[in-house]
Amino acid sequence: xxxxxxxxxxxxxxxxxxxxxxxxxxxxxxxxxxxxxxxxxxxxxxxxxxxxxxxxxxxxxxxxxxxxxxxxxxxxxxxxxxxxxxxxxxxxxxxxxxxxxxxxxxxxxxxxxxxxxxxxxxxxxxxxxxxxxxxxxxxxxxxxxxxxxxxxxxxxxxxxxxxxxxxxxxxxxxxxxxxxxxxxxxxxxxxxxxxxxxxxxxxxxxxxxxxxxxxxxxxxxxxxxxxxxxxxxxxxxxx
Amino acid sequence: xxxxxxxxxxxxxxxxxxxxxxxxxxxxxxxxxxxxxxxxxxxxxxxxxxxxxxxxxxxxxxxxxxxxxxxxxxxxxxxxxxxxxxxxxxxxxxxxxxxxxxxxxxxxxxxxxxxxxxxxxxxxxxxxxxxxxxxxxxxxxxxxxxxxxxxxxxxxxxxxxxxxxxxxxxxxxxxxxxxxxxxxxxxxxxxxxxxxxxxxxxxxxxxxxxxxxxxxxxxxxxxxxxxxxxxxxxxxxxx
Lengths: 239, 239
Description:
The structure is a homodimer of 239-residue chains. Chain A has a five-stranded parallel β-sheet with strand order 7-2-8-1-9, with helices on both faces. In chain A, α6 packs across α7 and α9 runs antiparallel to α10. Chain A is globular and about 50 Å long. In chain A, a hairpin with a 2-residue loop joins β4 and β5. With 239 residues, chain A is α/β, with parallel strands linked by helices. Chain A is built from ten helices and eleven strands.
């Protein structure tokens, strides 16, 4: 099994994804929020690239969630804080969801054979699902506006560690994956502090979302794996 | 002082480099070879982007060195193995030099205020030179054909570690730099083994250059820092 990591969405070409299992990671905060919402009883998340598409698709019984500039979008029900997506809010609900980097990364990954949403919150479950699928794995770090984001890279490193530890077969990891794996091993004892000090963590803390950063640095809080299904609209549901 | 790392040449835009100290890294093998040649008495290295330019510029008293597909170019005096650039071969000589990734990375870095060639062989000296220059630092990992190369990232991590340890002022390191720094810390006890297992290391070993990989993984063997000077032709000389 080959495992490769892309440091930003911009780097990914469709041909890199064909017949692969793609794990999209946006730790701060889109995929952490998606994992939490589905863990808390939401029946489906519809990822949309633009605010206009999200508004157009929203219906009476759906919740509208997401962010621009890290803040809740005007008229939306929810922002991009995973803490907002509690069972009392999201249980049994469909959520139309758009964020700056995360939902874009999902849309750029459509050529993959199976597309999973990964985060620290469900890293081990994601690794096990990828192993079950028995395909080569591409991990797409969403990043921040075409720049690498440390939290996504470290999460890629964690998922690689879990795949390697649980794999029966030999895994071959590309150079960027090895770097992320080694970096993760060196910080895993103080993950929350590391995330609070990275660029996105500092930005979110400055505008009042420090608790989100701490929450998103929890490893394996959940065992659900959001899998992308359907077309028009796309939907993420628990596997 | 701000320190940023670019994972490949392709990512770098000229405006990222203006007024910065740029450290170009191609551990396997261009910058390791440049550092070694100048440490061994070569008076200047002229980096050329193409084989044609190198041939056109070569004169009777210059050596022609470099590679394509990791091998010595037909009609050239020397390949890209640092072990070829011994004192008896290069002392007092000018070398016209072209490689697939390293010399291209140097040419893409011309907008920097000062351009240095870095490697594990001179990492500490490079860090100290960057500190003396008192400018923000951009580390350009040459990579391999627009893909990240682990050995370059780890060397960036090492240079960041040396800058941080020797800096009187506070240093702020971008996310990719932090990842490389953490990865370096986790492998620094077994650097040669790590380089032999990375993609370039395996490729070079397969075609008989395993000794080059081991040689290039030596930390601070030299104290010289190649600095880019001149125009038409460019030349790298010891600081």
